[in-house]
Amino acid sequence: MPADSANPAPPVALVQFLRGIGKRGYVLAEAQCGEIARAQQALTATIAEFRDAAAHLPLAQWPEQFWQRLLSQPTLRVYTAAHGEDALAHLSAGPRAALLLRLVAGLDQTHGAAVLRVSPAAYRQALFRALHALQEQGFDEAALRVLRERLQQRVKALPEQFLLAPAPPQPAPVLQRMFASAHPHAPRIQRSSSRWLRPLLWVALAAMVLLFAATFVRYPVGMRSAVKIERLPEQPVAARLSSTAAALASPDFELLNDPDGERYASDLALLSWFDASAATPASPGSAPNPVTLPETTTPETSAPDTEQTEGGRPGAP
Amino acid sequence: MRRVALALLLFFLSAPPSAIAANVGWADLDAATRTLLAPWQESWERIDVEDRQRLLANASHWQAMSEPDRAAFLGRNIAWNALPPLQRTQRRERYAAWRALMPGDQARIRAAALHFAALPAAEQQSRRMQFAALDADSQRSWLLGPTSGGWIASVLPLFAYTPDAERAPTLAMLEALPVEAHAPLLQLAQRLPEKQRETLRRDLLATAADARLRFLQQRLAQ
After folding, report:
1. Residue A96: enclosing H or E segment and its boundaries?
2. pLDDT tens-digit profile of B173-200?
3. Do A302 and B135 touch (CB under 8 A)?
4. pTM, to two decimals
5. Distance (Å, whole) CA B147 – CA B106
6. With an 8 Å Cβ cutoff, are A270 and B128 in contact?
7. How many CB pairs under 8 A join A and B?
8. What is the ipTM of this complex?
């Protein structure tokens, strides 16, 4: 690490780093705010900030610092469901960021907590909250796996030159703009071809529309008879896992292997409360060790807890 | 219930598994394990490291079981799979909370279960109704066990206006506070008006975990 600090990485390393992390950064930003334009804006600002800071940072800190800067962008604070994962709209910003750091950035709890500048316990709690909110929307393990796959596919689907390619509404390639000040003589994008390119693209688009429309035209009667439907040969039923193998593959193996623990767990909250209140019989609605509230405190409600708003709603943590 | 299943955390959100399991190839397995995991032989090298680690751990447990235990396990597995998904999720969540308890708290829960079972049916029902009358956050806090649950239940009303985005970190912070910090925080929070109490919460959250006790003691001495 000291060597890294003493010898700042050259711009080439920085470009390679941003190429590697940029697509994931964009997908995380898009999923965090739900809007393409704001995601691009956040990524652009992040790269600009990171470019200045990276020269003074050891390489080992680059990923953490990159994600930290990205998630601190003001444009990511509000979620718009228009283009994002609808399921994520029901999460508040903190838990959503914690979840995306795991699913998109692939960070473990230690690094995720470092990025969010919270303790690992707090990060874990944020994950709990995110998963619970998803669970309330009907998410199970399979659905979460699909969500993760979809986000990762989104990363893969972006072109390799994503950060370098001119993509509307960006007026200039992100990386080129980022390094423009460092390389004032860098070649600019040649736009002279746009005079003939634009009409050509319109012609191509029109041709595609015509071809698509043609697929709705019914075949002439004579042609229909040429279409044959053949039944596919019977395939053997895929081998199914034995009951033992299915048990071994169960994600609930540990729970199923601990029936005593599971029995205690089923009434855990009740028994905890009962144990703490056993010495002094509790009255309905009270905690065993009630505190005297200041006069300014309004008692919390027993309304169901939802996470629709970003803050200010009464409710205990 | 606001926490989610341990399984979700374990298989999607846990830290990367150890390098030891990551490097276990099919040829490295003993004959008995290979037989048990035969359905995965062809795909072994392509299986996610986390899943591979889980299969190995489960196979190890399985080999240590007696035949009657294995039969009982399979029976429980059938019954488990017949449960509605939501019910399974809730039970996973509670089991995760149980596993997270300190041994002392687990012992208290075992004793409490015996005590509770010895109560007359009518009193059991009365206790259940008293518990059900608690608000949702308070009920959930008791999943942390009798020690932490009691503490959290005591301080939750004092931080009733925590913004949503800070609720999880605040709850985690409260859970992690050392026992010596409980009384100072309660005294401070009870004497402060709402706005200053919110400032105290934010300051405490911004303070390093190992400095929070000193922070509270200093604030109390002011």
Report:
1. helix A93-103
2. 887 788 888 888 988 888 888 888 999 9
3. yes
4. 0.45
5. 11
6. yes
7. 304
8. 0.74
